[in-house]
Structures are given as C-alpha cells and as structure tokens.
Design a protein that fits this description.
Putative NAD-dependent epimerase/dehydratase family protein, five-stranded parallel β-sheet, Rossmann fold, six-stranded parallel β-sheet, P-loop_NTPase, DgcN-like_C, 2 domains, alpha/beta, 11 helices, globular, DgcN-like
Length: about 350
C-alpha cells in the first residue's frame, strides 16, 4: 500500500503475541489468522484461556515467556460479536502489561475504558493501542464518480474470506505490473497494510463518505482493491456492507463464499443466500453509484476440503454460473482466470 487515505500509517510494536481468549469459534478469530497468514514474520506465539479451543498453530507461550522470546505487544486476535472485551480476559491482559508487553486491540471497546487495563498500563508504562478508531472529520458521501478503477470483495456472509481474497487479488495485480493499492476496511487489514479506515466503527451517515475517502481519485489505470465487510444479507451487519458498496463505487465485485456453510454466522435461522441472489442484489444496489458495475467471478473458501474435491466443485460451479470460480489461497489456473476477468 503506497499511501494511507484515512488513518495515518500505523507504527505498532512488534513482534506479536496473539491472544485468542477463550474462543471456541474459529470464525471470530479472523485477526489472529489474518496476521498469521499475511504478517507471519511478526507473530511469534499465541496465548489462550480455558475453555478456548481455537488455535493459530503457533507455539503456546505465557506473556512473560513471549516477552523473553522477543515479543513486544499482545494483539487481541479474536473479535466476538459486538466487539467487546470479555471480563474473563482482563486478568490475562493485565498479566501481559505486567510482563512488559503493550496491548493492541481492534475491538469496539477502547482498551483505556477498561479501568484495570488503564491502571496497569499507567503503572507499568505500557501503551494501549486501539486500531478500530476512524479518522475525525469524515464527510457525507457524495456519489460523485471518481477517476481510477476499483474492485470490492463482497460475500454471502461475514468471516469467509473477503480480506484474503482482496489481498490475494492485489498481490496478483501487482505481479502483473498493475498499479494497485489494497484498501483496508477492518482492523486486521489495517494491521496488515499499516493504514485504512475501520468501516464498522464509522457512524452510518458517514459510511459512504469514508469509503470515498479511502479510495480517492486516481490515475485511469490505477486499481484500488477494497476489502469488503459483512454481507448485504446479514441481519446485523448489512448497513456497513451497503455503505461500503455505495462509497467504494466498484467497477468490479468478486463474490466470496464458503461452500457448506448453511446459516449466517451469529444469526441462527438465517440461511445463506444463493450465489445468484448475492450477485443480483450487489449489482442492483451497486448500480446506484456506478451503473457500470459488474461481477468478475467468485472466490471460494475451500480450506476444509481436499484438493480434488475443491477443484471438482469449483469447476462445476464455474460452468454452472458462467464465471471464474477459484480459491485465492489455492491459486492455480482457476485463480489466474479470475484475475484475468477482473482486469478484463
């Protein structure tokens, strides 16, 4: 990322100890997994509490052991619904401050608003760093057509690969010599990229304006690959998705999906929409600010499938839908076809 519209470039203390709390749902550990996969050189260990079962596959270390091994910050790597800091986590976070680690959080709740953390940080001279803080002075969206090209990742649900897809596409564009920036819209993406705007922390009236600030006018051949958030079908998070869709004004969308998922994450009883319905709704609403919007294809998260099964499914779905279907992490010819169609 060559520039940082919105938040200034972050300077976070590294390496990290990734804190997984007491989570038993991997879908809420996007921050830990994202940092492991895209900033792995900065992650040396993980720390979790009972009865937590989620792991990033890193060595388990206490805060003191991690500090001795070189860690300089504990990053809260889980983001449960609502973005709160659980009371059960506080003693472990205080332990980290006492061990010499700064705290980095992408939660909605500010670290300094937790009295025990504020007191421990002051006592031990440690920093409390909140990433999920939007810049001041964001404008209301205008809908004005901007120069440059934009791609937005959208999804059938939240937490299924929109960030990974955007990062993979931005890297693939760059490898082809395309002038491109990854535009981060969530706390993990911001930690990876070093800047961005946490869209779900922006007041709704300024959501589209924030997306306009994030992806400003650019050269005609420049691409902004914008990290998507939530889903238009999520009963809680659709507002963020719509503001981002209108404000980013994408020329291209890529629909992200996890085969086998049947219900919206965190909303039992709400079924996952079909791929066709997802394309239709995103294009219908996206045309409000960019009548030329198109869908270039689909990104499947097939991490829980073997290679042959994943390839067969994606090939069949590509033929059925008439567009490229690929897993950006698996790569291969299918992903090359998706990149071709995005740029084409």
């Amino acid at each position: 990322m060559s520039s940082f519209p919105g938040n200034a470039a972050l300077r976070l203390p590294t390496p990290y100890l990734l804190f997984l709390g007491d989570s038993v749902e991997g879908g809420y550990a996007k921050t830990a997994f994202g940092l492991r996969d895209w900033a792995g050189d900065k992650c040396i260990a993980e720390y979790r509490l009972a009865p937590g079962t989620v792991t990033a596959g890193l060595p388990m270390m206490s805060p003191a052991a991690a500090y001795a091994a070189g860690a300089r910050a504990l990053v809260i790597g889980v983001a449960p619904s609502g973005g709160g800091i659980a009371a059960a986590w506080v003693p472990a976070l205080v332990e980290a401050l006492e061990a010499g680690l700064d705290l980095v959080s992408g939660m909605h709740v500010r670290l300094g608003d937790v009295p025990q953390l504020a007191a421990a940080a002051a006592k031990h001279g440690r920093a409390l760093i909140d990433v999920r803080v939007p810049p001041a002075g964001l404008p209301v969206g205008t809908g004005r057509k901007r120069t440059g090209k934009r791609l937005l990742t959208v999804g059938t649900d939240c937490a299924l690969g929109k960030k990974y897809t955007a990062l993979s596409l931005a890297n693939a564009f760059a490898e082809r010599g395309v002038d491109v920036d990854f535009r981060a819209t969530g706390q993990t993406g911001i930690m990876i990229a070093g800047g961005g705007i946490p869209m779900d922390a922006v007041v709704s009236d300024f959501e589209a304006g924030a997306a306009e600030v994030l992806s400003p006018d650019a050269a005609p051949d420049h691409w902004d690959v914008v990290e998507g958030q939530g889903s238009l079908f999520h009963p809680a998070y659709a507002a963020v998705s719509l503001g981002l869709l209108h404000g980013s004004q994408p020329d291209v969308i890529v629909v992200c999906h996890q085969p086998g998922r049947t219900e919206i994450l965190g909303a039992p009883g709400y079924v996952i929409p079909s791929l066709e319905e997802t394309v239709e709704l995103n294009l219908l609403l996206g045309r409000r600010t960019n009548p030329a919007i198109r869908c270039a294809g689909f990104a499947f998260n097939t991490g829980d499938m073997d290679a042959a099964e994943a390839e067969a499914l994606m090939d069949a779905e590509s033929k059925r839908l008439g567009l490229p279907v690929a897993d950006p992490i698996r790569g291969g010819d299918a992903f090359k076809k998706l990149v071709d169609n995005c740029l084409g």
